[in-house]
Amino acid sequence: MPFSREASAGYLANHMARLFEKGLARRLVPLGLAPAQFMVLLVLWREDGLTQRDLAERLDVEQATMANTLARMERDGLITRSVDAEDRRARRNHLTERGRALEGPATEAAAAQNAAALAGLTEAERAALIAIAAKVIATMRRG
Amino acid sequence: MPFSREASAGYLANHMARLFEKGLARRLVPLGLAPAQFMVLLVLWREDGLTQRDLAERLDVEQATMANTLARMERDGLITRSVDAEDRRARRNHLTERGRALEGPATEAAAAQNAAALAGLTEAERAALIAIAAKVIATMRRG
DNA sequence: ATCACTTGCATAGCATGCTATTCAACAGGA
DNA sequence: TCCTGTTGAATAGCATGCTATGCAAGTGAT
Questions:
Q1: Is residue A123 assigned to a domain?
Q2: Which of A136, B14, B88, B95 could form a disulfide with B99 if both were Cys (CB 3.0 to 4.6 A apart)?
Q3: Is B116 in CB contact (< 8 Å) with chain A?
Q4: How far is the CA of B74 from the C1' of D26 (A)?
Q5: Among all residues of chain A, which has the CA nearest to that of B109?
Q6: Which residues does the UniProt record annotate as the domain HTH marR-type (chains A, B) (predicted)?
Q7: Quick one: B64 and B114 in the same domain?
Q8: Residues spanned by the domain of B74
Q9: What is the number of domains present in chain A?
Q10: Nucleotide with C1' nearest the B73 CA
Protein backbone atom coordinates (compact mmCIF):
# COMPACT_ATOMS: atom_id res chain seq x y z
CA MET A 1 0.00 0.00 0.00
CA PRO A 2 1.55 3.30 -1.04
CA PHE A 3 1.95 5.95 1.64
CA SER A 4 -0.41 8.78 0.81
CA ARG A 5 0.20 12.35 1.86
CA GLU A 6 -3.48 13.13 1.47
CA ALA A 7 -4.45 10.55 4.11
CA SER A 8 -1.57 11.14 6.50
CA ALA A 9 -2.55 12.89 9.71
CA GLY A 10 0.97 14.24 10.09
CA TYR A 11 1.02 15.76 6.64
CA LEU A 12 -2.43 17.26 7.07
CA ALA A 13 -1.49 18.69 10.45
CA ASN A 14 1.56 20.32 8.94
CA HIS A 15 -0.33 21.72 5.98
CA MET A 16 -3.18 22.99 8.12
CA ALA A 17 -0.79 24.62 10.58
CA ARG A 18 1.10 26.37 7.80
CA LEU A 19 -2.10 27.79 6.37
CA PHE A 20 -3.30 28.90 9.80
CA GLU A 21 0.00 30.60 10.54
CA LYS A 22 0.14 32.32 7.18
CA GLY A 23 -3.38 33.66 7.61
CA LEU A 24 -2.78 34.78 11.16
CA ALA A 25 0.50 36.42 10.18
CA ARG A 26 -1.30 38.43 7.52
CA ARG A 27 -3.91 39.61 10.01
CA LEU A 28 -1.31 40.51 12.62
CA VAL A 29 0.99 42.49 10.32
CA PRO A 30 -1.02 45.71 10.71
CA LEU A 31 -0.54 45.37 14.47
CA GLY A 32 3.21 44.94 14.12
CA LEU A 33 2.93 41.50 15.64
CA ALA A 34 4.12 38.02 14.58
CA PRO A 35 2.34 34.75 15.37
CA ALA A 36 4.80 33.42 17.94
CA GLN A 37 4.79 36.78 19.70
CA PHE A 38 1.01 36.62 19.87
CA MET A 39 1.20 33.23 21.59
CA VAL A 40 3.50 34.67 24.26
CA LEU A 41 1.18 37.63 24.71
CA LEU A 42 -1.76 35.25 25.19
CA VAL A 43 0.03 33.88 28.24
CA LEU A 44 1.28 37.21 29.59
CA TRP A 45 -2.15 38.84 29.35
CA ARG A 46 -3.29 36.29 31.91
CA GLU A 47 -0.11 36.05 33.95
CA ASP A 48 2.31 38.94 33.61
CA GLY A 49 5.86 38.70 34.91
CA LEU A 50 6.55 35.05 34.10
CA THR A 51 10.07 33.79 33.47
CA GLN A 52 11.32 32.43 30.19
CA ARG A 53 11.15 28.91 31.56
CA ASP A 54 7.51 29.42 32.63
CA LEU A 55 6.58 30.67 29.18
CA ALA A 56 8.38 27.86 27.39
CA GLU A 57 6.54 25.29 29.52
CA ARG A 58 3.11 26.79 28.99
CA LEU A 59 3.55 26.98 25.21
CA ASP A 60 5.49 23.71 24.98
CA VAL A 61 8.45 25.08 23.08
CA GLU A 62 12.12 24.70 23.91
CA GLN A 63 13.81 27.20 26.16
CA ALA A 64 16.13 28.34 23.37
CA THR A 65 13.17 29.04 21.10
CA MET A 66 11.52 31.14 23.77
CA ALA A 67 14.78 33.02 24.40
CA ASN A 68 14.85 34.16 20.79
CA THR A 69 11.17 35.05 20.66
CA LEU A 70 11.44 37.11 23.84
CA ALA A 71 14.50 38.91 22.49
CA ARG A 72 12.49 39.95 19.43
CA MET A 73 9.57 41.01 21.60
CA GLU A 74 11.83 43.18 23.72
CA ARG A 75 13.34 44.66 20.58
CA ASP A 76 9.81 45.43 19.33
CA GLY A 77 8.75 47.10 22.56
CA LEU A 78 6.21 44.47 23.60
CA ILE A 79 7.88 43.46 26.85
CA THR A 80 10.59 44.55 29.25
CA ARG A 81 12.78 42.11 31.15
CA SER A 82 14.12 42.59 34.65
CA VAL A 83 16.34 40.43 36.79
CA ASP A 84 14.45 38.63 39.56
CA ALA A 85 15.42 39.88 43.01
CA GLU A 86 15.17 36.45 44.63
CA ASP A 87 17.01 34.51 41.94
CA ARG A 88 19.47 36.55 39.95
CA ARG A 89 19.65 33.94 37.18
CA ALA A 90 16.01 34.47 36.30
CA ARG A 91 14.49 37.36 34.35
CA ARG A 92 10.86 38.37 34.73
CA ASN A 93 9.04 39.28 31.51
CA HIS A 94 6.60 42.16 31.83
CA LEU A 95 4.17 43.60 29.30
CA THR A 96 4.72 47.15 28.15
CA GLU A 97 1.81 49.53 27.58
CA ARG A 98 1.96 48.59 23.93
CA GLY A 99 1.92 44.89 24.68
CA ARG A 100 -1.08 45.32 26.95
CA ALA A 101 -2.95 47.50 24.47
CA LEU A 102 -2.76 44.84 21.75
CA GLU A 103 -4.98 42.39 23.61
CA GLY A 104 -8.22 43.51 22.00
CA PRO A 105 -7.15 43.86 18.36
CA ALA A 106 -4.82 40.85 18.34
CA THR A 107 -7.43 38.59 19.89
CA GLU A 108 -9.94 39.75 17.31
CA ALA A 109 -7.46 38.98 14.52
CA ALA A 110 -6.92 35.47 15.80
CA ALA A 111 -10.64 34.86 16.26
CA ALA A 112 -11.25 36.07 12.71
CA GLN A 113 -8.61 33.69 11.38
CA ASN A 114 -10.14 30.76 13.24
CA ALA A 115 -13.59 31.70 11.99
CA ALA A 116 -12.40 31.92 8.38
CA ALA A 117 -10.63 28.57 8.61
CA LEU A 118 -13.59 26.78 10.16
CA ALA A 119 -16.21 28.45 7.99
CA GLY A 120 -16.99 25.26 6.09
CA LEU A 121 -17.56 23.13 9.19
CA THR A 122 -20.64 22.39 11.24
CA GLU A 123 -20.62 23.10 14.97
CA ALA A 124 -20.21 19.39 15.62
CA GLU A 125 -17.24 19.16 13.27
CA ARG A 126 -15.54 22.10 14.96
CA ALA A 127 -15.99 20.52 18.35
CA ALA A 128 -14.73 17.19 17.02
CA LEU A 129 -11.64 18.77 15.47
CA ILE A 130 -10.72 20.47 18.71
CA ALA A 131 -11.39 17.45 20.89
CA ILE A 132 -9.53 15.02 18.65
CA ALA A 133 -6.57 17.34 18.16
CA ALA A 134 -6.30 17.76 21.92
CA LYS A 135 -6.26 13.97 22.30
CA VAL A 136 -3.55 13.56 19.68
CA ILE A 137 -1.46 16.25 21.33
CA ALA A 138 -1.84 14.58 24.71
CA THR A 139 -0.76 11.25 23.23
CA MET A 140 2.33 12.66 21.59
CA ARG A 141 3.38 14.64 24.66
CA ARG A 142 3.39 11.46 26.73
CA GLY A 143 5.01 9.27 24.11
CA MET B 1 -14.96 36.19 26.49
CA PRO B 2 -11.26 35.48 26.87
CA PHE B 3 -9.48 33.93 23.91
CA SER B 4 -8.37 30.47 24.90
CA ARG B 5 -5.38 28.75 23.36
CA GLU B 6 -6.73 25.39 24.44
CA ALA B 7 -9.89 25.82 22.36
CA SER B 8 -8.31 27.54 19.37
CA ALA B 9 -8.13 25.37 16.26
CA GLY B 10 -5.16 27.38 15.02
CA TYR B 11 -3.18 26.91 18.18
CA LEU B 12 -3.97 23.21 18.33
CA ALA B 13 -3.02 22.76 14.68
CA ASN B 14 0.30 24.43 15.32
CA HIS B 15 1.01 22.42 18.45
CA MET B 16 0.00 19.15 16.82
CA ALA B 17 2.11 19.86 13.75
CA ARG B 18 5.16 20.66 15.87
CA LEU B 19 4.84 17.42 17.77
CA PHE B 20 4.34 15.43 14.58
CA GLU B 21 7.37 17.01 12.98
CA LYS B 22 9.56 16.50 16.02
CA GLY B 23 8.60 12.83 16.21
CA LEU B 24 9.09 12.28 12.50
CA ALA B 25 12.43 14.07 12.57
CA ARG B 26 13.62 11.74 15.32
CA ARG B 27 12.58 8.68 13.33
CA LEU B 28 14.20 9.97 10.14
CA VAL B 29 17.55 10.92 11.67
CA PRO B 30 18.96 7.38 11.35
CA LEU B 31 18.15 7.55 7.64
CA GLY B 32 19.96 10.86 7.24
CA LEU B 33 16.69 12.47 6.20
CA ALA B 34 14.78 15.57 7.35
CA PRO B 35 10.98 15.95 7.33
CA ALA B 36 10.74 18.43 4.46
CA GLN B 37 13.05 16.27 2.38
CA PHE B 38 10.80 13.29 3.04
CA MET B 39 7.82 15.24 1.70
CA VAL B 40 9.67 15.95 -1.54
CA LEU B 41 10.68 12.31 -1.82
CA LEU B 42 7.03 11.28 -1.40
CA VAL B 43 6.29 13.19 -4.58
CA LEU B 44 9.36 12.11 -6.52
CA TRP B 45 8.82 8.42 -5.75
CA ARG B 46 5.60 8.71 -7.71
CA GLU B 47 6.75 11.19 -10.34
CA ASP B 48 10.47 11.51 -10.84
CA GLY B 49 11.97 14.36 -12.83
CA LEU B 50 9.58 17.12 -11.78
CA THR B 51 10.66 20.76 -11.78
CA GLN B 52 10.96 22.94 -8.71
CA ARG B 53 7.74 24.69 -9.61
CA ASP B 54 5.90 21.35 -9.94
CA LEU B 55 7.11 20.23 -6.53
CA ALA B 56 6.23 23.51 -4.86
CA GLU B 57 2.71 23.30 -6.24
CA ARG B 58 2.13 19.72 -5.19
CA LEU B 59 3.30 20.37 -1.64
CA ASP B 60 1.80 23.87 -1.45
CA VAL B 61 4.95 25.66 -0.38
CA GLU B 62 6.50 28.75 -1.91
CA GLN B 63 8.99 28.41 -4.74
CA ALA B 64 11.77 29.90 -2.64
CA THR B 65 11.16 27.36 0.12
CA MET B 66 11.38 24.53 -2.37
CA ALA B 67 14.57 25.99 -3.88
CA ASN B 68 16.29 25.77 -0.52
CA THR B 69 15.00 22.30 0.30
CA LEU B 70 16.13 20.98 -3.09
CA ALA B 71 19.56 22.54 -2.62
CA ARG B 72 19.93 20.66 0.67
CA MET B 73 18.72 17.45 -0.94
CA GLU B 74 21.26 17.76 -3.72
CA ARG B 75 23.95 18.47 -1.14
CA ASP B 76 22.88 15.32 0.72
CA GLY B 77 22.96 13.14 -2.38
CA LEU B 78 19.21 12.50 -2.55
CA ILE B 79 18.63 14.09 -5.95
CA THR B 80 20.51 15.39 -8.97
CA ARG B 81 19.36 18.36 -11.03
CA SER B 82 19.72 18.77 -14.75
CA VAL B 83 18.73 21.58 -17.08
CA ASP B 84 15.65 20.81 -19.14
CA ALA B 85 16.44 20.48 -22.83
CA GLU B 86 13.20 22.10 -23.99
CA ASP B 87 13.26 25.01 -21.54
CA ARG B 88 16.69 26.01 -20.36
CA ARG B 89 15.30 27.97 -17.42
CA ALA B 90 13.87 24.83 -15.85
CA ARG B 91 15.77 22.17 -13.96
CA ARG B 92 14.52 18.60 -13.67
CA ASN B 93 14.91 16.95 -10.27
CA HIS B 94 15.83 13.28 -10.37
CA LEU B 95 16.17 10.76 -7.57
CA THR B 96 19.59 9.26 -6.95
CA GLU B 97 20.02 5.59 -6.05
CA ARG B 98 20.11 6.65 -2.42
CA GLY B 99 16.94 8.69 -2.74
CA ARG B 100 15.16 5.80 -4.35
CA ALA B 101 16.41 3.29 -1.79
CA LEU B 102 14.95 5.27 1.10
CA GLU B 103 11.35 4.71 0.04
CA GLY B 104 10.81 1.64 2.18
CA PRO B 105 12.44 2.69 5.45
CA ALA B 106 11.30 6.31 5.31
CA THR B 107 7.72 5.36 4.59
CA GLU B 108 7.80 2.96 7.50
CA ALA B 109 9.15 5.68 9.76
CA ALA B 110 6.34 8.03 8.80
CA ALA B 111 3.71 5.35 9.22
CA ALA B 112 5.09 4.55 12.65
CA GLN B 113 4.92 8.20 13.65
CA ASN B 114 1.32 8.47 12.48
CA ALA B 115 0.43 5.28 14.33
CA ALA B 116 2.02 6.51 17.55
CA ALA B 117 0.27 9.85 17.34
CA LEU B 118 -3.15 8.35 16.65
CA ALA B 119 -2.80 5.50 19.12
CA GLY B 120 -5.41 6.95 21.48
CA LEU B 121 -8.09 7.37 18.84
CA THR B 122 -10.83 5.11 17.59
CA GLU B 123 -11.03 4.30 13.89
CA ALA B 124 -13.94 6.71 13.58
CA GLU B 125 -11.97 9.48 15.25
CA ARG B 126 -9.02 8.97 12.92
CA ALA B 127 -11.26 9.16 9.89
CA ALA B 128 -12.96 12.25 11.28
CA LEU B 129 -9.66 13.99 11.96
CA ILE B 130 -8.45 13.39 8.43
CA ALA B 131 -11.73 14.36 6.78
CA ILE B 132 -12.18 17.52 8.84
CA ALA B 133 -8.56 18.60 8.42
CA ALA B 134 -8.87 18.17 4.68
CA LYS B 135 -11.98 20.36 4.71
CA VAL B 136 -10.26 23.09 6.73
CA ILE B 137 -7.28 23.03 4.38
CA ALA B 138 -9.56 23.32 1.36
CA THR B 139 -11.33 26.28 2.94
CA MET B 140 -8.12 28.12 3.72
CA ARG B 141 -6.61 27.49 0.30
CA ARG B 142 -9.60 29.10 -1.37
CA GLY B 143 -9.88 32.01 1.06
C1' DA C 1 32.97 26.67 53.56
C1' DT C 2 33.51 23.70 49.51
C1' DC C 3 32.43 20.80 45.80
C1' DA C 4 29.11 18.74 42.89
C1' DC C 5 24.71 19.07 40.89
C1' DT C 6 20.93 21.64 39.12
C1' DT C 7 18.78 25.34 36.94
C1' DG C 8 17.91 29.82 34.09
C1' DC C 9 19.58 32.02 30.08
C1' DA C 10 22.27 32.95 26.10
C1' DT C 11 24.40 31.55 21.91
C1' DA C 12 25.78 28.83 17.84
C1' DG C 13 24.34 26.26 14.05
C1' DC C 14 20.88 24.35 11.32
C1' DA C 15 16.13 23.28 8.90
C1' DT C 16 11.72 25.16 7.29
C1' DG C 17 8.91 28.55 5.84
C1' DC C 18 7.68 33.28 4.12
C1' DT C 19 8.07 37.77 1.30
C1' DA C 20 10.56 40.48 -1.96
C1' DT C 21 13.85 41.00 -5.53
C1' DT C 22 16.68 39.85 -9.43
C1' DC C 23 18.07 37.54 -13.59
C1' DA C 24 17.88 34.75 -17.54
C1' DA C 25 15.07 32.43 -20.78
C1' DC C 26 10.80 31.99 -23.14
C1' DA C 27 6.54 33.59 -25.78
C1' DG C 28 3.61 36.58 -28.35
C1' DG C 29 2.40 40.65 -30.69
C1' DA C 30 3.60 44.92 -33.28
C1' DT D 1 13.07 41.38 -35.54
C1' DC D 2 12.27 43.73 -31.27
C1' DC D 3 9.89 44.85 -27.27
C1' DT D 4 7.08 43.52 -23.60
C1' DG D 5 5.37 40.57 -20.42
C1' DT D 6 5.67 36.03 -18.22
C1' DT D 7 7.89 32.34 -16.04
C1' DG D 8 11.62 29.25 -13.61
C1' DA D 9 15.19 29.73 -10.32
C1' DA D 10 18.26 31.84 -7.16
C1' DT D 11 19.18 34.87 -3.43
C1' DA D 12 18.63 38.03 0.55
C1' DG D 13 16.57 38.78 4.84
C1' DC D 14 13.70 37.40 8.44
C1' DA D 15 10.74 34.46 11.93
C1' DT D 16 10.16 29.97 14.22
C1' DG D 17 11.63 25.91 15.84
C1' DC D 18 15.16 22.38 17.24
C1' DT D 19 19.58 20.37 19.38
C1' DA D 20 23.83 21.12 21.66
C1' DT D 21 26.84 23.98 24.52
C1' DG D 22 28.45 27.09 27.83
C1' DC D 23 28.17 30.11 31.81
C1' DA D 24 26.59 32.08 35.97
C1' DA D 25 23.89 31.58 39.95
C1' DG D 26 21.41 28.69 43.22
C1' DT D 27 21.24 24.34 46.34
C1' DG D 28 22.61 20.66 49.12
C1' DA D 29 25.57 17.46 51.18
C1' DT D 30 29.78 16.80 53.50
A1: no
A2: B95
A3: yes
A4: 48
A5: A3
A6: 6-138
A7: no
A8: 34-99
A9: 1
A10: C15
